[in-house]
Amino acid sequence: MLNRFVKGALLCAVLPVGLTVSACSGMGEAGMHHVVAGNWPAAKEDFTKDYQSDPTHPIAVFNMGATYHHDGDIDKADSMFHEAVERGKTHVPDDTIEPPGSGVTVADYACSRLHRDNKLDAGCGDRIVAVAPPPPAPIAEAAPAPAAVAEATPAPAPVEAEATVVPPKQDRH
């Protein structure tokens, strides 16, 4: 009888603690606490684990971008922020490493980061990106000419302008 009582008491004591701990360890939360403490190496490790466990989660994508940005890899960071714009349009995080805001989505935070890096994204409402034509396709290198073909003659050098001398008018008288 005592054995059942001990098991029940243990279950009632341990289960709520386990649920509380698991609820507090949301996506990016552990890394966020490291960022606040200034421990970026630990934050990077936590953010990397989050990203590896769910590479499509908008918070994981954004946090990896923030990590790359902190490490100075701006191009890789902005690539992640572009992806976070697409994935986080409707995701409003409970807590973030960015300044808090009411109803601010992950996409909004990513757009803010992109704009600070002078980058545009159509998903951020940057209309110039949406209407700009795509860049021209790279020109493929031409195959080398056969050896029997003579090389083109160079263009003649430009001729300098010469002053014209007008002879004086002669009187008929």
Share of residues in strands: under 5%
Shape: elongated
Residues in helix, %: 40-55%
Overall average residue pLDDT = 75
* CATH homologous superfamily identity of the domain at 27-130: Tetratricopeptide repeat domain
Q: Spans with pLDDT under 50 lasting ≥5 residues?
A: 5-24
Q: How many E strands?
A: 0
Strand count, sense and barrel status of the largest sheet are: none
* Helix-strand pattern: HHHHHHH
The radius of gyration over CA amounts to 33 Å
Secondary structure category: mainly alpha
N→C terminal distance = 149 Å
Predict the CATH topology of the domain at 27-130.
Serine Threonine Protein Phosphatase 5, Tetratricopeptide repeat
What's the total helix number? 7
What is the top-level CATH class of the domain at 27-130? Mainly Alpha
What is the CATH-assigned architecture of the domain at 27-130?
Alpha Horseshoe
Mind sketching the topology for me?
Elements: H1 2-24, H2 29-37, H3 40-53, H4 58-71, H5 74-87, H6 106-116, H7 127-131
Helix pairs in contact: 2-3, 3-4, 4-5, 5-6
In short:
This protein is mainly α. Helices cover 52% and strands 0% of the residues.
Characterization of the model:
It is a single chain. The chain is mainly α and 173 residues long. The protein has a domain at 27-130: Serine Threonine Protein Phosphatase 5, Tetratricopeptide repeat (Alpha Horseshoe), CATH 1.25.40. The protein contains seven helices and no strands. Helix 2 (29-37) runs antiparallel to helix 3 and helix 5 (74-87) packs antiparallel against helix 6. It is elongated and about 110 Å long. The relative contact order is 0.08. Mean pLDDT is 75; it is low at 5-24.
